[in-house]
Design brief:
Layout lengths: L1 H34 L1 H15 L5 H11 L2 H11 L7 H13 L3 H11 L3 H26 L26 H31 L2 H15 L7 H10 L1 H15 L3 H13 L5 H9 L3 H23 L12
């Protein structure tokens, strides 16, 4: 009973925080659909998304993620679910894009405070998202991999407002939105239980131990590997805070901070965020394995470029 009460309190607290992010996005998207703005924005995003072999709606979902966060993107995804025609490969590519470049204003501010350039690491995240998303989507299409249609039926409850003829209907949309948010809460509780089980079985510790050598191989200073590992697994906020503390205490060189924070910028919260995307239907090889491999390659290249005074910006002006 004590465990269930603790789970209820934690899940309720997180759910309230998520609703504050998701609900405004869902409202804005739905109103935009009723007024025809979403169709106009879709036409604006269509050429860029076509280059990535993604549907136009993917642009809105990605922008919501980049500016608001992962759960803002999910809010937009819920609103687009009834009309979104997307394959597993395309959704996996989009999910990887969300993981590479979400919450840019907030997270890049943390990166800047920790000692790396806001703009350099931000551009790195956007470039990785677009490049990786396009590579996955087109490679899967050419190879015929993961081409089965993506099922988003469980997310479509919030779109009961779409009646025949497209006439706006407020109360069905409210009812559907409540159902969608409740389903999101169920997923959230399941994720919390899964993460807790992984911690109790020692799986999280095993992943942490396995990550440390990968970080060192990519060229990170061994001194900063432990705190970087925390951020890689639990999130940029946690890792950035630790690096801020350790950098002030141990006076890490600018290059060391830049490489560590670049790692965190590209791949962080590998457990929670990745499990969330997989729960929605993304392929784990795309959103986890491929993302980590790309991050290692990029950081190894940056380490080589900066070893002898490369030109990569390492700190933003105050």
């Amino acid at each position: 009973m004590s465990y269930l009460l603790q789970l209820w309190r934690r899940s309720a607290r997180l759910f309230i925080a998520l609703v504050k992010v998701m609900l405004p996005v869902m409202v804005v998207v739905q109103v935009g659909q009723w007024l025809g703005w979403i169709d106009a924005l879709g036409r604006l995003f269509a050429p860029a998304m076509a280059l990535l072999d993604l549907p136009p709606e993917a642009g809105m979902v990605w922008v919501a993620s980049a500016t608001i966060g992962i759960y803002g993107a999910i809010g937009a995804l819920i609103s687009f679910a009834p009309t979104l025609d997307i394959s597993v490969a395309q959704f996996s590519a989009l999910a990887a894009m969300l993981l590479f470049s979400h919450s840019l204003p907030v997270e890049q501010a943390i990166v800047r405070r920790a000692g790396a350039s806001f703009w350099a690491t931000g551009a790195l995240r956007v470039a990785a998202a677009l490049g990786y998303g396009a590579a996955v989507s087109w490679a899967c299409r050419w190879g015929g991999w993961l081409q089965e249609p993506m099922s988003l039926h469980w997310l479509q409850q919030s779109s009961l407002a779409e009646q025949a003829g497209g006439a706006p209907s407020f109360w069905p949309w409210v009812q559907g939105t409540v159902v969608s948010l409740l389903l999101t809460y169920v997923v959230l509780v399941a994720l919390l239980v899964l993460l807790d089980v992984m911690e109790r079985l020692g799986i999280t510790r095993a992943i942490t131990a396995a990550m440390a050598p990968l970080l060192r191989v990519s060229g990170l200073d061994p001194r900063v590997t432990p705190v970087t590992t925390v951020g890689v697994l639990l999130g940029l906020t946690y890792g950035g805070a630790l690096i801020i503390e350790e950098a002030d205490r141990q006076q890490y060189p600018a290059r060391t901070r830049f490489l560590a924070l670049s790692w965190l910028s590209l791949s962080h919260s590998l457990i929670e965020d990745t499990v969330l995307m997989v729960a929605l239907g993304a392929d784990i090889w795309v959103v986890l394995v491929g993302r980590v491999v790309l991050t290692m390659a990029v950081i190894a290249l940056l380490a080589r470029l900066t070893r002898r005074g490369g030109t990569v910006a390492q700190r933003a002006p105050a």
